[in-house]
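Memo to structure team: turn this sequence into structure tokens by end of day. - J.P.
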Amino acid sequence: MFSVDDRAFRCTALCFLGVRLFAAEATLRGRVVDEASAPVPGAIISLRPAGQLPSPGPAIETTADPTGAFQASLPEPGSYLITVAQADFFPLTNRPLDIHEGPNEIVLTLNHVRNTSESVDVKSAPSPIDVDQTDSERRLSGKEIFDIPYPSTHDLRNAMPLIPGVVQGRAGDLHFDGGSENQVQYNLDGFNISDPLTGTFNTHLSADSVRSMEFLNSRYSPEYGKGSSGVLAIHTETGDDTFRYSGTNFVPGLDTSGGLHIGAYTPRLNFSGPIVKDRAWFSDSVDGSYNQLYVPGLPKGQNTRTSYGGSNLLHTQVNLTPSNIIFTDFLININVNPNANLGALDPIPTTVDLRNREWFISAKDQVYLTRGMLLEFGFSDLRTFSRETPQGNALYVFTPNGRQGNYYLDTTQTSQRKQALANLFLPSFHWLGTHQFKTGIDLDRLDYTQDTRRSGFENVGLTNNLLRLVTFAGNGTLSRPSLEASSYIVDNWKIKPNLVLELGLRQDWDELVRQTVLAPRVSFSYAPFGWKNTKLSGGYAVLYDPTTPQLFSRPQDQYSLSTLYNPDGTVQSGPAATVFTIDPRGLQMPRYQNWSLGLEQMLPERILLRVNLLRRRGKHGFTYVNVLNANASPPPAFVQLYQTTQFEGIYQLENQGTQQYDSAEIALHQAFGKGYEWMASYTRSRAYSNAVADVTVDQPMLISSNAGPLAWDAPNRFLTWGYLPTKFKNWAVAYLFETRTGFPFSVQDEIGRVLGAPNSDRFPEYLNLNLHLEWTTHLFGYRFALRGGLNNITDHKNYTVVNNVFGSPNFLMFYGSTGRHFVVRLRWLGRVKT
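Reply from structure team:
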């Protein structure tokens, strides 16, 4: 028996002499766990004879399975050096290990890297290229989320565009590999936290609470649910036997946008430690926010809006026994946003007061069974509440120069998702290689309720003459439940040490569509000629998009009545109804086929090169299609139901939507020293659909042809960021630079008709450079980091709003650039380590 302890790791090993089968054979079996005895799947274990240093030869490598278990066959007993590495952990590097003949058993314990105060010295870490991993993963560590100077660093969603292939739209919406925000499944510690109503990511998470964020795209495991663009897996911080605490931005920040003012006060506090030592631990992250947002393009005194809110995320782990571990999460969000949607073309009277609340609770139990099996099962409950209140009861007015009056929508919405899941990792076995099977089920119950009242809106011309009046009828109170059931099986087949094939099949059933679909997926990983620093990977996957209650509840909602007017003020036509219905012949789930190919190459100086090619083709997409024939009478059933013979449109939900996305991406990443790194990427892509605009009762745009580039299409994007040392001790420089093609937009006339092809025009090129200096110091036994710098240092005009009304005096005038501004951040990093 031996043990080794230091700051970076703790390793204990127990070696047993077995029956001598062969005189010169030895095997090493064991598990890799963290300091709280939870498994560390995917850890890379590397062994080499001790006598090979300082010029090591080829190493014997293996990877821990989902239970943390591993096994390696060694050519002979003797003294070896073992290295164990996994992201977010201090590596165990070149530690001596005596191997006896026959079976040897070992338990390896790796310590987490804490975001606030610890860094890994990467100079001796093994290559991050893992042949056993077949999926395409792009990852952000908690430290990167902390260090890179992206705008509004208090909210995790603003860090997501640091991932190559992820862009943030003009309204802050997120788009992963060319998909809409609801084409990604968002997981928090293994549970789905996508909004039950829309499928988008509306959860506020403090950036300080996150240990890492992984985006799996194109060929991810069938374990994960529906989402043609991929899965975003968020892992939260966990506690250990040491009490830790830190804080960020507990002093209000200054902002120079539109003049010097307190731009944001976003205090964040983090606490972690033992509940019962060696048995139970907690990590709690609480944050608040007070934001005074400057909106360029509006008169002084009417160009700011204030919002405030807070959140708390509590994560716990309890080891009931060494083989039974329970994890829990409890999250609450509260946000109050008066004058939401304030913009250059939307003054204060047209805004709404928005209040949101969200509650999330989850529990997962991991049970280690005999023969290396692992069973995990869990339950989660996500509930949301939203209240949207306009500033008054006046009609909402669309003018050629912006909006006037009061917003017309007054609504309350609630939604809920109850999720139950179970996963079983089966024992590995050998047949033409090594097989590791995993299977599981997932049940989801969704509920949606709405209480909505709409007044109406007008379109007026250049001379303020009335062109169109839209009012609403029907009952806006509704509810829409749904049930989803899924199962999957996947085989990770290691044919050779340098060749891995993953075969999987997923089954999904949805109550809204009432169809069972199968999604086969296959992927591979190959290290040519056994090269450790080169990996080719690729795959093919059939994926399905989720169905959302909001989309299917549209026929139950209110409908609009539109009246058109002549230039002299007389009625031209109407009131004509626009109504929504669902195809009675039945619907199919939107289906996507993804082909992908990737290359990973470790270059000199530990620079990692990644090349990824992706082709996605979607069909059977949900879209509301106008089935009203202009030369035919409306169906009698609709005339009787809506008590009118005039219809502007009868929109039917059908499977006519198609979507195409192609991308080629190249990225370089280097980590060096203690915590320093940089990344640079270029992406060439194309996102196209025949259903660009989502026609709703609240969508005033009138469109005939609906095919074109998607609103977030950015054919060229270059992104780089880094956290770099300076020649001055305790000083570092952090930067973020992004430039891309401007997003597309449509041109319309005075009553909202799209002129020409949709999204045929574009905003000017986007360019942003943030440059910050950070000073780390000790004071009264505590560590502090003071950061200051300029965002948009070049003062480039990165517009978010355009006047797109043809004929307006301000036609094609752009608004919304915040310009160059100075920001400050103060972080309290806890006690100085001695």
